[in-house]
Design goal:
single chain, elongated
Length: about 60
Amino acid sequence: MKEDEQPDRGLPIVPAESLPADLVHLLITRVGLSEAEIARMTREAAITRLQLFWSDGA
């Protein structure tokens, strides 16, 4: 280990832009998207997709 580095403590690294679990759940169960599709979405795109589903039912 280098003197200036902190050791890896095993804590998970959370992405800067992770999606809330309830949003992911709604996209899977209501909209019918796969986890792979959701993983590629930004937070804004996921919210927009759910709003589109609620407004158009599509």
